[in-house]
Amino acid sequence: MKKILFIFILCTLTLNAVTLNIAVAANVSYAIQELKQKFIQKHHDIDVNIILGSSGKLTAQISHGAPYGLFMSANMSYPQGLYDKGLATTKPRVYAKGTLALFSTKKQDFSLGIQLLKEANIKRIAVANPKTAPYGQASFEAIKNAKIETAIHDKLIYGESASQTLSFVLTAADIGFIATSSLYSAKMSVYKKNVHWMELDSSLYSPIEQGVVLLSHAKGSDEYRLFYEFLFSPDSKKIFKKYGYIIS
Question: CB pairs under 8 A, 24+ apart, for 39-43?
Answer without folding.
Answer: 39/226, 39/227, 39/230, 42/230, 43/223, 43/226
